[in-house]
Amino acid sequence: MMGINKSGEKKSAPLSPRQRNLALLAGLSVALYTVENLIPLPIPWLRIGVGNIGVLLALYVLSPLDGFFVLLIKVVVGSLFSGRFLSPFFLFALGAGIPAYWVMAGVKKIAGRWLGPVGVSIAGAVSHNIFQLGIAYLIVVQNVTVCYLAPLLVGLGTISGALIGAMVRAILPRLKIDTPSKPSKMDK
Amino acid sequence: MKPWPKRGDLILFAVLLALSLTGWLTIHLLRSRNAPTSLQIDASEQTFALPLNDTVLVIPGPLGDTKVIVEDGKVWVEEATCPQKICKRQGKIALPGQSIICLPNRIVITIKGEIQPDAVTY
């Protein structure tokens, strides 16, 4: 933020590698999210959430906090593009997305030794679906019958999470991104 | 990078899929064994329990009367005074736990069974 304020005086302050990568991954997320929303589907839960590829990449390549920023940008800007900003859909996406992201980041931190991107992504997707069901139960229906949906949502979350994780795993080694941690330490 | 998917990934994937499948099957088993017993109607801030016999009910609400038909164990809303007629579009219900809800007229129609969902343990 400081760089933008000073840019007038100092003539285009360059973005740090972290800022550039963050912008790149956030843009990727928003674009994928928007394109996926253009595809009509009979049931809303069938979307696999390709926008989360950028979130997961940021979690792996940058830091947990940067991944969180990518998630927030994805939901806010993505729903602005698809005309859902501040709609119930948006509140659901934000309300389930934020806790699910931290569950995912926690799983990566704690179980990262045994789990690759596929497992971490599954954890995020399944917890996202469960949080969404929880919000639906608390706010919308308050009827125990919604719990009948839980197995279906866990199953769909597992499959879509695994797909996203596999894509991220395939992208990671090919990602030509100057990881800020290594070069900046070498510079110093 | 290390080989993938890691063993943990596969285990997590398999465990969650198995969990989802068993949960799904359990619910279906419970539902098929669970015979519908009665009809519960919440309207005008009161709760009524009715047997599932063929009848025509006229339920008053803030916007007017709602006509509900019970026939052959199926329950549906025939006529409604609410603007969007969502209750009509919810169709016919017959299984325990299923419900028809009309928010404008504050009516909740639920089919009750021998096993109540409250008694389900996970």
Structure characterization notes:
- The complex is a heterodimer of chains A (188) and B (122).
- Chain A is mainly α and 188 residues long.
- Chain A has eight helices and no strands.
- In chain A, α2 (17-38) crosses α4, α4 (64-81) runs antiparallel to α5 (88-111) and α5 (88-111) packs antiparallel against α6.
- The longest helix of chain A has 25 residues, at 117-141.
- Chain A is globular.
- Chain B folds into two domains: 1-33; 36-119, Sandwich (mini-chromosome maintenance (MCM) complex, domain 2).
- Chain B contains two helices and seven strands.
- Chain B has helices at 7-33, 86-89, and strands at residues 36-43, 46-51, 55-61, 64-71, 74-79, 99-102, 107-113.
- In chain B, the strands form two sheets. Chain B has a four-stranded antiparallel sheet with strand order 2-1-7-6.
- The model of chain B has no long low-confidence stretch (mean pLDDT 82).
- Classes of the chains: A mainly alpha (188), B alpha+beta (122).
- At the A-B interface, α6 and α7 of A face α1 of B.
| Proportion of helical residues of chain A | over 70%
CATH topology tier name of the largest domain in chain B: mini-chromosome maintenance (MCM) complex, domain 2
Structural class of chain A: mainly alpha
Biggest interface between protein chains, with counts per chain? A-B, 29 and 25 residues
CATH architecture assignment of chain A: Orthogonal Bundle
CATH topology of chain A: Arp2/3 complex 21 kDa subunit ARPC3
The secondary structure category of chain B is alpha+beta
Strand coverage percent of chain A: under 5%
How would you spell out the order of helices and strands of chain B?
HEEEEEHEE
Radius of gyration of chain A: 18 Å
Beta-strand percentage range of chain B: 35-45%
Please report the total strand number of chain B as a whole number: 7
The low-pLDDT segments of chain B are none
Number of helices of chain A: 8
Biggest sheet strand order of chain B reads 2-1-7-6
How would you name the CATH homologous superfamily of the largest domain in chain B?
A: N-utilization substance G protein NusG, insert domain
In total, how many domains does the architecture of chain B comprise? 2
Under the CATH scheme, which architecture of the largest domain in chain B would be assigned?
Sandwich
Order of helical and strand elements of chain A: HHHHHHHH
